[in-house]
Amino acid sequence: MYIDPNIYPAGMLVNDPTKVINTIPGQTMTTTSDGIFSRMNTVLEDPWLSPLKVIEDRITKLETENKFLRLKILSIEGKFTQEEVTNIRKMLMSEDESSRTLAESIIDNA
Fold it and tell me: How far apart (Å, rounded) are the C-alpha atoms in residues 108 and 43?
């Protein structure tokens, strides 16, 4: 609630509803630029973040599936034994970035 310091001294409660500017509890008085427009800007920015993240996750998943399929084809062609395929699969699914990179380079160079 905004209290005009020229009319009411600090700490004095205002019970006159005509003197109250902002009646929302817990809110302070805001100007137009800080009020509704700042909220609109944050609302407009958020919807774009989510679809981009979904698309990025989908591309990553498709790339991983593609690597598994290439590994399967290389296994069928006899380039890798079943034990090697199992190890490379584990490397692709690893949390370690260097293991994934090494597995990708093994598949690309085969």
Answer: 43
- Domain for residue 5, yes or no? no
Unique residue bearing structure tokens 């690597």: 67
Residue-wise pLDDT tens digits, 21-41: 555 555 555 455 555 555 555
Give residue 76's domain range: 57-109
Answer whether residue 87 is part of any domain. Answer: yes
pTM of the model as a whole: 0.52
Structural domains in the chain (count): 1
Burial 45-76 (b: 16+ CB within 10 A, else e): eeeeeeeeeeeeeeeeeeeeeebbeebeebbe
